[in-house]
Specification:
The structure is a homodimer of 219-residue chains.
Chain A (H helix, E strand, L loop, with lengths): L2 E5 L3 H12 L3 E6 L2 H7 L5 E4 L5 H7 L6 E4 L5 H14 L3 E5 L3 H10 L3 E3 L1 H14 L3 E8 L2 E7 L9 H7 L4 E8 L2 E4 L15 E7 H8 L3
Parallel strand pairs in A: 1-2, 1-4, 2-3, 4-5, 5-6
Antiparallel strand pairs in A: 7-8, 8-11, 9-10, 9-11
Bound molecules: adenosine-5'-triphosphate (2 copies).
Chain lengths: 219, 219
């Protein structure tokens, strides 16, 4: 059970605050707008109306020992910067902040924010990938140019074999998992018979981006 | 090479339009704000200044045959609804739209939007999960309550064995992959010696949410 501070209770901040509370943590939410605070009074541990551009606000909340703080203020860049500055100076271990531009990001990074989130940008990338590769339902960037990709097979792949598609493209890609209805099949349980694809199968592949792209045309 | 229409060139729309262009597609971007259009003139195929609340706008753009359209207007709910309505009526195969509230979502769904994105809400969930489980760097919802989880091992897991942690918790969870520096290890190549964890290892686990939660306390 951890203690979290969330400043700014717009959609982003509210989601974080209510989800962390639902997961069993203690959450203090702060917003200068009374309506946001009232709306969340029942769904988070504590919610207070306060303006974080006033230095006394954060001092009076006694949050130095909190496990993490999130600055979920977007449009008021100055307020976001002042809050981030003060929280980092207080020594809170993890200070995360939302940024709306590369410039905003650079300032927050300089001030010591441990992680900076760009919701519109990060979701925009995911949407572009999903539109570009319609069969790719989801993906995970593992770093080092390695990716996990979740395909949802369409009729186009019906009765074909994933091994055949991968070898045919000369791609150095691994099949990690197949989920068909409520069963998950993990190697080495795969056999060529198992690997005849059925429309609707969820197939998890892993490999370097350039290798995954070799089979992209097939998809 | 596909053809895409992106209406609204704020951060979300701009990201989608520029990323799709970078991936080799033809992208038409539309915004009523000239500054947004000018800023993107060099990074997307075409960018035009137009107001989509005027019914003639979309008619004159001849986009009926496009592969997909994205309505990336958030705050002006009416404009978002009018554009979505018209694009669905035109018969475009895939119409995706951004929504800022559950109510907005319901209206867009009723009008026939194929996918509705809530950037602030979806990123908020990810941030809450990351803060709640600090060792979980990323996760993928596979549906059917199955999840892939990427852990980044901290010193706490140094020299321990993943099998021992999983069995100790009685968790029905599979180890799909270990990434250590620039090498990926996939079962069945794992041996107990390999599975001694080193701080910094990226470990991909798969299982039902309730099973993964059994090892959450260890992390
Ligand atoms: N100085 C401040 N002190 C406290 N709260 C603030 C301050 N400035 C802004 N906020 C609050 O932060 C919240 C988020 O602000 P933002 O400008 O990012 O709005 P938003 O775009 O509606 O948010 P979201 O995108 O998360 O829905 C608002 O509810 C606002 O009242
Ligand atoms: N009727 C319209 N016709 C064309 N473009 C529009 C219309 N209404 C709004 N837009 C454009 O849509 C874009 C996104 O609008 P939104 O209100 O979501 O702003 P935003 O919050 O800054 O966007 P983002 O969150 O993507 O950065 C703006 O650039 C705006 O000019």
């Amino acid at each position: 059970r951890q203690q979290f501070l969330v400043i700014g209770l717009g959609v982003f901040g509210e989601t974080i605050a209510t989800e962390l509370t639902r997961l069993g943590n203690e959450v203090l939410g702060v917003d200068r707008d009374e309506r946001q605070v009232d709306r969340l009074a029942e769904s988070i541990t504590h919610a207070v109306v306060a303006d974080v551009t006033d230095e006394r606000t954060l001092k009076e909340l006694n949050v130095e020992h909190y496990d993490a703080a999130v600055v979920a203020i977007g449009r008021d860049v100055e307020a976001s910067i002042l809050a981030t500055m003060q929280l980092c100076a207080m020594g809170i271990e993890e200070v995360w902040a939302k940024a709306l531009s590369p410039q905003h990001h650079r300032i927050l990074a300089k001030l010591g924010a441990n992680r900076i989130v760009h919701p519109e940008y990060e979701m925009g990338l995911r949407v572009a990938q999903a539109l570009n590769y319609p069969m790719v339902n989801n993906y995970m960037d593992l770093g080092n140019d390695e990716f996990l990709v979740e395909l949802i097979a369409t009729e186009r792949l019906d009765n074909r074999q994933m091994h055949e598609i991968i070898d045919g493209a000369g791609a150095d890609v691994n099949i990690l998992l197949l989920r068909r209805q409520d069963k998950c099949y993990q190697r080495p349980k795969f056999t060529p018979e198992d690997m005849v694809i059925a429309s609707g199968d969820h197939i998890i592949l892993q490999g370097k981006r350039s290798e995954l792209q070799k089979i992209a045309r097939e998809l």
